[in-house]
Amino acid sequence: MKILVLNSGSSSIKFQLIEMPSEKLLCNGLLERIGEQDAIINYHSNSADEKRTEPIESYNEGLQKMMDLLLDTQKGVIQSLDEIEAVGHRVVHGGNSFSDTVLLTDEVKKEIEKYCALAPLHNPNNLEGILVAEKLIPKAKQVAVFDTAFHQTVPKHAKTYAIPKELTEKEEIQLYGFHGISHKYVSEKARAYLGEKSDKIITIHLGNGCSMTAIQNGISIDHSLGFGPANGLIMGTRSGDIDHTIIFHLVNELGYELEEVNTLLTKKSGMLGLTGFSDLREISERAEKGDADCLLALKMNAYRIKKYIGSYTAAMNGLDAIVFTAGIGENSVIIRELVCEELEYLGIHLDKKANSKRVDELREINTENAKVKALVIPTNEEIEIAKQSFLMMNVER
Fold this sequence. Notes:
Keywords: ATP-binding, Cytoplasm, Kinase, Magnesium, Metal-binding, Nucleotide-binding, Transferase. The chain has helices at 59-71, 106-114, 123-136, 156-159, 165-170, 180-194, 245-252, 258-267, 270-275, 280-288, 292-316, 326-331, 333-340, 352-356, 381-396, and strands at 2-8, 12-19, 24-32, 39-45, 48-54, 84-91, 102-103, 141-146, 200-206, 210-216, 219-223, 321-325, 363-364, 373-376.
């Protein structure tokens, strides 16, 4: 069974065409910087490798370019889109409506749309991907896999906000958590690797969006993102944790409209607001050359992560391992080093030589005698989505 997996991020589309149940990768690709004139298209199959830069104005345009690559007579891997039996979609916010993978129906799409206001950088793009895929691949089953589902296990005392009960109970304002597909995937890899010493793990997903999860005995017990995917860690364009009185100050004293504040905190803040750049590669290069703003931003980013490591270690009454994953977590030597330094009291001792190696596989970056393992585990949300989509297809049959 060929399953196309679509993972639409806040400014990117990852895709993989996977043969299930063998998990054989037929092709994969990444479209980055969507909405910009210098968008990047990466595509790989057994017969072709391609990287090019060109304008991609919208997700609709990006998805169409992706379909063209799949069908290309020289580079493609299928002759007809009818060969694809299922399309698995990553959907960021499912609220309390979904605790598991589901087939997409009109009702499900309405629920996804309902949560667009809570995940404005993601759910609209997820929904657009669904609608385009339905149009371009009408014979395939469309499956939704939710980032929020993994965090349904977070206990009430951790997910409830200290606001009036009618808001938490009637309006369901609570911590939902995100990046659950990634946190689930890498935590299972970590537990398989660590064996018995895997009860208390902190997974650190660092990309354009960033989050951390405290995972005890394989389940999520706390998470850094909350009602929407905007709080917690410092991200590419999102501020992360902020004193909410700043919002009232911006509106009441500085004359901002609420929509302007929302745009400011989700699209103009974070690393972009601190440095003028959202790409950590550019920021790191400038920091190495002595750029004061970029140096400060890196230190702030790492400091916020360290605070969450401390709080989650306390919540779990101990720590067996931390896991770095996603684009920045897997590739940024400097962020991992800044995060791990001066955490010896927790049992975290970084091996700088191991940390500097760039290997695309699970590896330890801790010293041999470290009490707590520090792991780098490449995430593969697409394989996890394909697994869940395949299981759903079998249930339907």
